[in-house]
Amino acid sequence: MQVLSVASEVYPLVKTGGLADVAGALPLALGKQGIAVKTLMPGYPAVMRLAADAVVRRTFGSLLGVEARILEITHQGLDLLILDCPELFDRAGGLYLDTDGKDYSDNWRRFAVLSKAGALIAQQGLSGDPGGWRPDLVHVHDWQAAMVPAFMRYADEAEVPSLITIHNIAFQGVFSAEIFPELELPPHAFSIDGLEYYGSVSFLKAGLQASWEISTVSPSYAEEILTPEFGMGLEGLLSHRAANLTGIVNGIDTDVWNPQTDRLLAANYSAASLASRAENKQRLLERFALSGDDGPLFCVVSRLTWQKGMDVLAETIDELVAQGAKLAVLGSGDMALENAFHAAAARHPGSVGVVSAYDEPLSHLMQAGSDAIVIPSRFEPCGLTQLYGLRYGCVPVVARTGGLNDTVIDASPAGLSAEAATGISFGAVTAENLSRALRRAVRLFKDQNIWTGIQKQGMKSDVSWNSSAALYAGLFSEILARKGL
Ligand code: ADP
After folding, report:
1. pLDDT at residue 474 above 90?
2. Is the pLDDT of residue 485 over 70?
3. If you measure from the C-alpha of residue 83 to the centroid of ligand 1, how many angstroms do you get, rounded to a whole number?
4. Which one is predicted more confidently, 30 or 21?
């Protein structure tokens, strides 16, 4: 089976969040299942730097009015189709935000063009010639690629079966209706069962309507987004399409994230040599200017946002410190939240440390040296940091939502006695509930037998892509079977 994946970020080339991890790891895991994936992505500067020896596969004189080329390279096992379009992607800022941190005003065009290229490759083949490479199925990720099935739906050529994966329904790609004519779609596409969304254009909505099948990144989130609390306005449409909606939990790259071989650690270790984690903890305490003692070290590796419940964590810090715990925070995001953590660090020198940065190497050391990772998300489609935590013996303390609910087993008396517990979870995200969960974690940590039991159980969890890739492969086959292929 041949699949075209379309994504706006792909690890290890460019990444702002979990989407990149998935778009980078899933093709490799599917490859092991005999599914050949080519991934179409934008030619950002960091990507173009790798494309010196690329093969030009196709030249478009005008994609929605913009000149572009498709280049092909292989990079770390990934077969990449790069949309070379300097006018849209050769920018000094980030992937989506300019140097002032504002959305690029032409984001709609940047990702409509990406999607248009994806649709043309799917329907006409990579080179546009009848004999060239063509996918059996298109797998698109999030709003940035959501217009691929929509462009296919309104084109003259036959549609190619499609799957759209929602990584976070909070991001929908909603733009003014004024852009609609520029999308070169027939007028009836601006309708309630097409792109129209409360008088605006919604790329995600268009993709959810047009895609053959819809998936999201955990079974719990697949149910949650059918409700007004989590559906962010799309719960009605999703409920209508519920028969075509599934949840598949993300895996992680267990080669990149392997405590036995990870070169970013001070000391490697396995479940059989957990004592070696102490060296990583020591390195971390130094890095965050924290004093060393017997207390547990909690960490955060996260965007500092409301979604992640970071405001609630900030409220509980004083109580956490009063119990003899330490907190190391690696993250950036909302200024108000960054300031709240810096203020906590100033109040509790030696007990709370903050690094406001995006630092991938440090994130590995955090998982290897901290005793627990705190993830009090208000919603979490899947979440990756709890999976890294499980693999590294860094016990996840999580809100019981979305993928956190599906991947962490609470250290309740029943969970402990069944030797199934892998972390600590709590219900509604309030300061009181989080405090109670953190108190429970501190208490469990004091009994090192129990704590190492939880760590070891977590390290046994299958967080690899193997089973999830098999589920995607099964879903692909089902979609093709429906078409009679
Ligand atoms: P989201 O995609 O919503 O941000 P996920 O948990 O799915 O959340 O994925 C976040 C990814 O980004 C993880 O790989 C995590 O390790 C990484 N990450 C988040 N913040 C930082 C940071 N400040 N430094 C390094 N890595 C980070």
Report:
1. yes
2. no
3. 25
4. 30
Q: At what angle do helices 203-210 and 107-124 cross, to 10 degrees?
A: 20
DSSP strand pairing (78-84 vs 36-42): parallel
Band of pLDDT at residue 354, cut at 50, 70 and 90: very high
For ligand 1, whether the C-beta of 331 sits within 6 Å is yes
More confident residue, 482 or 250: 250
pLDDT of 253 > 90? The answer is no
Measured in angstroms, how far is the CA atom of residue 482 from the centroid of ligand 1? 36
With b for 16 or more beta-carbon neighbours within 10 A and e for fewer, the 65-97 pattern comes to ebebbbbbbebeebbbbbbbbeebbebeeebbe
- List the structure tokens of 422: 């892998």
Provide the strand spans (E) within 347-460.
Answer: 352-355, 372-375, 395-399, 424-426
What is the rounded distance in angstroms from the CA atom of residue 47 to the CA atom of residue 209? 31
At 176-230, the pLDDT tens digits run 999 999 999 999 999 999 999 999 999 999 999 999 999 999 999 999 999 999 9
Q: What pLDDT sits at residue 484?
A: 67
- Could you give the domains of the chain? 2-251+466-483 (3.40.50.2000), 271-460 (3.40.50.2000)
Three-class SS state of 51 = coil
**How far away, in angstroms, is 484 Cα from ligand 1 center?**
40
Helix (H) or strand (E) holding 246: strand 245-247
Ligand 1 contact, 361 CB (< 6 A): no
Closest Cα to atom 18 of ligand 1 = 302
Question: Which atom of ligand 1 has the smallest separation from the CA of 363?
Answer: 25
CA angle, 454 as apex, 452 and 457 as ends, to 5°? 105
